[in-house]
Amino acid sequence: MKVFITGGTGLIGSAVVAELLANGHTVVALARSDSAEAAVRAAGAAPWRGGLADLNVLRAGADQADGVIHLAFRNDFSSAEAVASSVAEETAALLTLGETLVGSNRPLVTVSGTPWVPGRLSTESDPIPTDGPVGGRGRTVGEILALESRGVRTSAVRLPRTVHNNGDGGFAGLLTQIARRTGVSGYPGDGTQRWPAVHALDAAVLFRLALESAPAGTAWHAVDDEGDAVRDIAAVIGRRLGVPARSVPQDNFGPLGAIFAMDQPSSSAHTRAALGWEPTHPKLLADLEHIQA
């Protein structure tokens, strides 16, 4: 299958590109800069020059492909306004990709986050949130999945709060960045809230499986660790960096503070049973041991 992918040079995207190529697919990856283009070529894929805001470029890329995987997102969480701008950019891009594939029965795999449900693990049947700082992403994914009625084999891979590789990535990676900057490995509240996690190489396998075989309009959970206590995550980060781990005010985490404070464990039991997905790479706390002081 010839696959057009956005976000193919990021931590998750580069793993997805490698997984696709290793399983016989060809890959055309959106590349917004000379360095991104070089990275795409080095990975063995073909670059498609442009950015997420270049809707005509996206339309042409999707039109010539047998399937599309969308991963790109401008990860600017510096302010509520920056988050809103990133969400708006992604929404326009995703709707463009979806409309391009209408009536073709080609697959479009997009990305979402695992939902949180008070008092229990979230499952694939739970709706994703459509409110809060990134609620717009949830609304857009809902629109994309609804394109199943218009001849697009849509699916969404829901990623947990931390997608990691060699100790970097996701919410845990943000905690590490903050700890380096402030000299404290902080967590909101008492730190008993749980975050799910998955290794990027395991998540990449699920994206491939969804592309190849997921029924239209379905959602899947790329969850290995169902929920690690945030204070346990912070403790490993603090030990690796040689800084204290302790509770800090929620406001220290900016627009994401409210999300950081939530208990949000998640299950992937249905995904494993239905698609045969089985994670094999290190879990989060073990992978954080790769952090260098």
UniProtKB/TrEMBL annotation:
InterPro entries documented for this protein: Epimerase_deHydtase (IPR001509), NAD(P)-bd_dom_sf (IPR036291), NAD(P)-dependent_oxidoreduct (IPR051783)
Record-linked Pfam families: Epimerase (PF01370)
Domain NAD-dependent epimerase/dehydratase: 3-215
GO-annotated cellular components: cytoplasm
GO molecular function terms attached to this record: aldehyde dehydrogenase (NAD+) activity
Stated name of the protein: Nucleoside-diphosphate-sugar epimerase
